Amino acid sequence: MTHQGIWVVAEQTVSGISRVSFELLAKARELKEQGGLQAPVTAVLLGENLDDYYSAKLMEAGAEAIILVDHPVLRYFQNETYAAVLKSLVEERQPSIILMGATAAGSDLAPTLGAKLHTGVSAHCVDMRLNEEGHLVAVVPAFGGKVLGDILCTNFRPQIATVRPGILGKVICFMHKQCPVERFDIADILAQDQSRVKALGITYEEMKGVPLEEAEIVVAGGFGIESKEIWQQLETLAAVLGGAVGCTRPPLDEGWAKESQMIGTSGKSIRPKVYIGMGISGATHHICGMKDAGLVISINKDEKSPIFDVSDIRITADAATILPLLIEGLQKNEDDVIC
């Protein structure tokens, strides 16, 4: 059987379907048009209680065919079980390309599926295209984000790639006729499932403040924030502005910030109206995650810092000096804050 078609493995969440699934469907439609492919873009969703709501949302996002795998055992993500189901489905239908979000689940599932199918996986892609031969070209950051490399899987199928949520940016609403919706029976697969790890439940951590990817104002700190005390001032500034706190790798390594706050190719991609960077040098690894911000304000004591090349407002100063002045001025509700 000839390998054909692009699949998007969508992800069920508490609120419905993850946004990155919709981003990937838009990208899959773009790739199909670029390559002049005939097979439909197919959305594959594993989960429980997958009613018409899920089909409708996937159709709106660009799915031209839908495969639903609905079973109580799939209520919680279980890597081995999910991989076994997808392996069976892929071997039967033979897609050429499989796209997943580089979420916690997707980053676990993609390499497991790749190993089971004896094919390659391009992880944490920032873009994708088809070359003249019809191979998927996955664009992946390397050397700390300083280089963007092209990865191809020319000899094996399917070609699997994961993409960070938000990096593609667009979610498109497609208005078209109803598409085929198929339900895949996994009774035989579950009978043979030898998975040693079973998910018993999920504990959700209550999020405080504005989610980073939804914030209109983001205050981000980097290597130039030299202590926990200064970092706490940065958090205060974000709170005063009604924004969210982001970071580069050093604050995460120091334990001042959480992994969910990291911006960049190995973190989140953001599009705030205002981005304020404090003590951030401007490595490509970070720039990739905030390049679509509206107004970019950067404060760094190194006047030659690369971050200034992508900034609208550049302030050469020490963050430790600027932060208390900004906080004091804003808390006094002054019309002008002199930096």
Automatic annotation (TrEMBL):
A single MF term (Gene Ontology): flavin adenine dinucleotide binding
A Pfam family it matches: ETF_alpha
Binding sites annotated in the UniProt record for FAD: 248-249, 279-286, 300
Electron transfer flavoprotein alpha/beta-subunit N-terminal domain span: 6-199
Keyword entries, A-Z: FAD, Flavoprotein
Cofactor: FAD
GO biological process terms, semicolon-separated: fatty acid beta-oxidation using acyl-CoA dehydrogenase
InterPro entries: DHS-like_NAD/FAD-binding_dom, ETF_a/b_N, ETF_a/FixB, ETF_alpha_N, ETF_asu_C, Rossmann-like_a/b/a_fold
Cofactor comment: Binds 1 FAD per dimer.
Family classification: Belongs to the ETF alpha-subunit/FixB family.
Name of this chain's protein: Electron transfer flavoprotein alpha subunit
